[in-house]
Amino acid sequence: MTDNALVIVAHPRPDGFAHALAGRAAGGLRAAGFDVAVLDLYGVGFRAAMSAEEREAYHGDEPILDPLVAEHAALLRSARVLAFVYPTWWGGLPAILKGWLERVMVPGVAFRFDERGKVRPALTHVDTIVGVSTYGSSRAYVRAINDNGRRTLTRALRMSCGARTGTRWLGLYGMDTATATQRADFAATVERAMLRLR
Amino acid sequence: MTRALVVFCHPTGDSLAGAVLDRVRGALDDAGAQQRLHDLYADGFRPELTAAEHAAHLTPGADPSVRRHVDDLEWCDTLVLVYPTWWSGQPAMLKGWIDRVWVNGVAWELPPGTRRVRPKLTNVRRIVAVTTHGSSKLVNAAQGEGGKRTISRSMRTMCHRRARTHWIALYGVDTCSPRRRRSFLARVERRIRALAD
């Protein structure tokens, strides 16, 4: 069985730095022997908001109504690595990525409810959750104020994974004032880190 | 007189969410507050920040399509957010409202020659979150209460210097009894009325 890795990228502009980073992350993962799928959420026109119909189906037997969501959920089911690449906005995930969690990570995919209504993890096949994010603010500011995106992925989502699932976080801070060299160094760091995930 | 902007985010406005909104609005009325409402789902708000908006993010001003949201945000002194907590934070719909409305020239500014962002929503003196969590308080604490921090830290920083945040939350909705729901609704009403008085 091949080892699958999923790279999920959220940036509205195709020339955004996040897309370059996603490319490097995917390259690193391929070099490490993974079969990589890249999900460009803006590129595929992913709808961020959970619809009323989806909300009503959420606790039923078939919570997925959208074929695009079904496709992403199928890719997720065998993934050993989940790599999220996005710019941090308001200390959190861009809405489109937050919506991806809400619509794809549904009962039966990311978790299930047991007979007492408690949440049990279903992403036990995931070895590593990777976050690659760019921040307008400095590292000190992000630390002092809020990094909800990181918390959502490395804590909330992590709880849907196995006991041994690891997390890896790579941030480029002060993005608005970063030099070309700093960006290039960061991109190289991302690729190297993915290569080591073997 | 309190000027409250209520932002409601729920796809179906089901029984609990709808009841919460009713209590919030009723309590604001009782306290004699002026209020404006944005129901993001009912209004068909589009939460995805576009490429054009991103390209313009260093230019002050929001996209013309969210003009009414900006006007009401600049009008209010009290912002009330009513939403379910999903994946430890605001639903994508509400996060998109923040991404697209709280932009340069609205929520903050970067005066020329400086590198420090300056808050611009100094008219906002309190932010109230009324939210429901599927999971328990313990689980939410372990997850870091990111959504709470988004409000009490990220958003509050761009408001009045002494702006306060109020957290009115019901945990464990997935397993909670009708009695706890009723007492939560009563708490919502009590606290909103006390705030707006």
Major β-sheet profile of chain A = 5 strands, parallel
Mean pLDDT over all positions of chain B: 94
- How many distinct beta strands of chain A? 7
Distance between termini of chain A? 15 Å
Low-confidence stretches of chain A: none
Q: What is the topology, as strand order, of the major beta sheet of chain A?
A: 2-1-3-6-7
Mean pLDDT of chain A: 94
Supply the CATH architecture of chain B: 3-Layer(aba) Sandwich
Give start-end ranges of low-pLDDT stretches of chain B.
Answer: none
The helicity of chain B comes to 25-40%
Compute the number of structural domains of chain A: 1
Structural class assignment of chain A: alpha/beta
Provide a brief overview of the structure.
The complex is a heterodimer of chains A (198) and B (197). By secondary structure, chain A is of the alpha/beta class.
Describe the structure.
The complex is a heterodimer of chains A (198) and B (197). The two termini of chain A are 15 Å apart. Chain A has helices at residues 17-31, 52-57, 67-77, 95-104, 139-145, 148-156, 180-195, and strands at residues 4-9, 35-40, 79-87, 111-113, 119-121, 128-134, 166-172. Chain A contains seven helices and seven strands, in the order βαβααβαβββααβα. In chain A, helix 1 packs parallel to helix 7. Chain A has a five-stranded parallel sheet with strand order 2-1-3-6-7, with helices on both faces. A two-stranded antiparallel sheet of chain A has the order 4-5. Chain A is of the alpha/beta class and 198 residues long. Helix content of chain B is 39%, strand content 20%. Chain B has helices spanning 15-30, 51-55, 67-75, 92-101, 137-143, 146-155, 178-196; strands at residues 3-8, 34-39, 78-85, 108-109, 118-119, 126-133, 164-170. In chain B, the strands form two sheets. In chain B, strands 2-1-3-6-7 form a five-stranded parallel sheet, with helices on both faces. A two-stranded antiparallel sheet of chain B has the order 4-5. In chain B, a hairpin with an 8-residue loop joins strand 4 (108-109) and strand 5 (118-119). The mean pLDDT of chain B is 94. The interface between A and B is large, with 43 and 42 residues.
